[in-house]
Design brief:
With about 525 residues, the protein is α/β, with parallel strands linked by helices. It has 17 helices and 16 strands. It folds into 3 domains: about 5-35 and about 325-520, no CATH class; about 45-55 and about 190-315, 3-Layer(aba) Sandwich (Rossmann fold), CATH 3.40.50.720; about 60-190, no CATH class. Helix content is about 50%, strand content about 15%. The strands form 5 sheets. Strands 5-6-4-3-7-8-10-9 form an 8-stranded mixed beta sheet. A hairpin with a 2-residue loop joins strand 9 (about 305-310) and strand 10 (about 310-315).
């Protein structure tokens, strides 16, 4: 699996159809249309937003899979030659040859890494990567022959096997690189390897930055446009061909309607106040945010910079859970989620039966909630309210002894059994994780204010995919939200989780969840 930044969840038709059929009756009588507060974008920004954008592949993950492919390919070639030629002659199996094959394969990957050929830009080409690969593979064999000679193992190794391993291994590597070149070029044409970038600052500094980025060969930077609050002569309508798309306040809405991977400030470090004001607005986005240092006279140590080609930048914020971390979380959700779903099926069957017998209406209930990067997603739950009083937008908070909640509904809400159908979201739809910030309803309110109006930086909790359970929930912050502290604490704990995520933390939260449900359920109605 290649790492994907998913902007529109892809849901298998069979799972989707099954869940839609089970909940279609629930949505009709109680659905209330609501108006989403969306900022109006400029015509230039809308033109970019309306373009079809392919999901991105991570170059880091691609390079990792190529390393694994090299190792597996060379190991298979060497062991196949041993089994097909050497073993029939010797009449017995020996672990010496397979061990030597694995050692050569590992050495080859290390040498390829040292030769710097695990770069996506090199995968697009042919001559340069082939030259480096041939020289590195030859060096590995010369090293192996030298070690065998000094260790006095040379007489025990078949020279024909060694020669065949060298040439067939090289042929296999070259064939693999030709296939990889075709794949990478196709991904590049589709824009899957581009880092979709917006520039903040449309003055002369912004123009110099865009020119520097465009001047680099084999760059993966795709400048979408520039944003600037100024309307005077200092703000240019175009910066080296990149159009001005709007003001800084428009960036959040823009990045939620199309894929943006990087926000790059072209402002000088001396504009500290302006930069801080802008960062307060933009840090809620799941994107990398960097400050360009190409025009700054103040220079730091080279290791203080990260580079976009030859353009030095200073990291301000990094997108959370990316590259291999995202692969690990995806595997964790799919594997552990599938096991949890299988284990929960008998319980889910009993709950479904109880819901059906307790009151009229469908078993499942579908509700619009906030997903990754403020996407609207459908979350599935067991129906806990009377069908004619269902509230799909959660415009009214459920309170203690709420008359809308059924008898079975009170029990399954108290024990969180109503959340079990969300395992379908995890395993099939992929728009929920097992662990993450809980997805709040899009019209969730504290008194008369929406949650994002009540808590500064509320949307920062949507920088990762929401989860069935989370750090806030196992620490007692679940259930009714009837005062400002409860929503503030949830956001605080969610942000802690995002900043400190690990697979072990996810596992700890999952194991702690049943205990939390038994001991910290006083706010769940």
């Amino acid at each position: 699996m290649l790492l994907e930044w998913t902007w529109t969840p892809v849901e298998p038709l069979n799972a989707r159809s099954m869940l839609d059929a089970a909940t279609s009756a629930a949505a009709k009588p109680a659905d209330q249309p609501f108006v989403e507060r969306r900022r109006r974008l400029s015509p230039a920004a809308l033109e970019v937003v309306n373009q079809k954008v392919a999901r991105a592949y991570s170059p880091i993950v691609i390079a990792g899979f190529v390393r694994l492919a090299d190792f597996v390919l060379l190991s298979l070639v060497g062991i196949a030659l041993y089994v097909g030629y050497v073993m029939p002659l010797s009449g017995a199996f020996s672990w010496i040859y397979p061990a030597e094959v694995v050692a050569v394969a590992i050495a080859a990957v290390v040498c390829f890494q040292a030769a710097d050929i695990y770069q996506v830009q090199l995968f697009r080409g042919q001559l340069r990567q082939m030259t480096r690969m041939i020289s590195s593979w030859s060096f590995v064999f010369l090293l192996f022959i030298g070690i065998s000679f000094f260790a006095k193992y040379g007489s025990e190794i078949s020279r024909l096997w060694l020669a065949a391993f060298y040439f067939l291994g090289l042929a296999a590597l070259m064939a693999e690189r030709l296939v990889l070149r075709t794949l990478v070029r196709g991904w590049a044409r589709q824009g899957r390897l581009d880092r979709r970038t917006i520039i903040v600052g449309s003055d002369s500094n912004g123009e110099q930055l865009v020119e520097a980025l465009k001047a680099q060969e084999d760059s993966d930077i795709h400048v979408l446009g520039v944003f600037d609050d100024r309307n005077d002569s200092r703000a240019l309508d175009t910066c080296a061909g990149a159009r001005k798309l709007g003001k800084v306040d428009d960036i959040v809405e823009f990045a939620r309607r199309t894929r943006v991977d990087l926000v790059l400030f072209a402002l000088p470090i001396s504009a500290e106040t302006r930069i801080l004001e802008m960062l307060k607005k933009l840090w809620v986005l799941p994107v990398d945010i960097r400050l360009s240092a190409h025009t700054n006279k103040l220079r730091f140590r080279p290791r203080s910079y990260s580079y976009l080609g030859e353009v030095p930048t200073l990291d301000v914020f990094e997108a959370p859970i990316t590259d291999w971390d995202l692969v690990m979380k995806w595997l964790f959700d799919r594997v552990v989620g599938s096991l949890a779903l299988l284990a929960a099926l008998p319980v889910m069957g009993l709950v479904a039966l109880a819901v059906k017998l307790d009151s009229q209406g469908p078993v499942l209930f579908r509700q619009k909630r906030f997903g990754f990067n403020n996407e609207r997603i459908d979350v599935y739950k067991f129906r806990s309210m009377y069908h004619h009083q269902a509230d799909p937008t959660a415009s009214k908070v459920v309170t203690k002894n709420d008359p809308r909640v059924t008898r079975v509904g009170r029990f399954i809400r108290k024990t969180s059994l109503d959340e079990l159908p969300q395992l379908f979201n995890v395993v099939f739809s992929g728009n929920l994780s097992l662990v993450g910030p809980r997805p709040h309803a899009v019209q969730g309110k504290l008194q008369n204010r929406l949650f994002d109006e009540a808590v500064d930086g509320y949307f920062a909790r949507h920088r990762v995919k929401p989860g069935i359970t989370g750090w806030a929930q196992i620490n007692g912050w679940r259930g009714e939200i009837d005062n400002e502290e409860k929503i503030q604490k949830r956001v605080e704990f969610d942000l802690y989780y995002i900043e400190n995520w690990s697979v072990l933390l996810d596992l700890y939260i999952l194991l702690k969840t049943p205990i939390s449900l038994l001991t910290k359920s006083e706010n769940a109605y």
